[in-house]
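Design a sequence for this backbone.
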């Protein structure tokens, strides 16, 4: 099955995926760190509280008292840990970016990725995702749900290490005609949604999957 065909079917099923309320790499860094393991609606609520309390300014995050940060991070688990991570992010933003993390959009992708990986919670897939959503990386970045869906659709092979699996899937995608840059974010979000709601890790619901007729792993 071609990736573009899978995305087309998912779009028919789910419609256009809503974009997160995030603008620019710095906000993405905060989006990823504001809560730990929360769903999108709780993450968005925490993000909005952080916006109201700090305007996302690195200095304001560093100067904020514990309560001002905890009221945002306690939307998820490990609230104190995440408040510490927000402060760590702010310190890195000031020390290494003079407060302007969004400058990475002017840099070559490899340099930009390396810079973003300095922040807590941002690995290679996360850095690629940030740049892809900001139109500065022209390949499909994946998180774990989308990666699982593509593996089951026959792209790449599962390896012992997550990074090796990710590389295998990306290499398999590389043999296909690239989809348009603007479509990459939709592909990311729609594959993630299918992985979260239908093609789950332990019990894929193939009977209710819009890709079941084309999927080599389907049990339907
Ligand atoms: S048919 Fe089943 S295994 Fe294939 S993508 Fe859908 S839910 Fe996943």
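Sequence:
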């Amino acid at each position: 099955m071609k990736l573009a065909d899978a995305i087309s079917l998912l779009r028919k099923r789910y419609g256009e995926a809503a974009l997160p309320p995030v603008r620019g790499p710095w906000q993405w860094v905060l989006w990823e760190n504001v809560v730990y393991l929360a769903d999108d609606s709780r993450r968005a609520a925490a993000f909005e509280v952080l916006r109201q309390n700090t305007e996302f300014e690195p200095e304001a995050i560093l100067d904020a008292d514990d309560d001002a940060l905890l009221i945002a991070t306690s939307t998820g688990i490990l609230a104190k840990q995440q408040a510490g991570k927000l402060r760590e992010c702010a310190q890195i933003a000031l020390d290494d970016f003079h407060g302007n993390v969004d400058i990475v959009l002017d840099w070559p992708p490899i340099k930009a990725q390396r810079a973003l990986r300095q922040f807590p919670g941002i690995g290679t897939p996360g850095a690629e995702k940030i740049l892809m959503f900001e139109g500065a990386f022209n390949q499909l970045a994946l998180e774990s749900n989308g990666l699982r869906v593509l593996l089951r659709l026959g792209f790449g092979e599962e390896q012992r290490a997550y990074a090796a699996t990710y590389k295998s899937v990306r290499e398999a995608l590389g043999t296909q005609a690239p989809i348009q840059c603007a479509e990459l974010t939709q592909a990311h979000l729609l594959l993630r949604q299918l992985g979260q709601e239908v093609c789950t890790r332990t019990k894929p619901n193939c009977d209710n999957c819009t890709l079941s007729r084309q999927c080599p792993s389907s049990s339907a």
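The first helix runs from residue 3 to 14.
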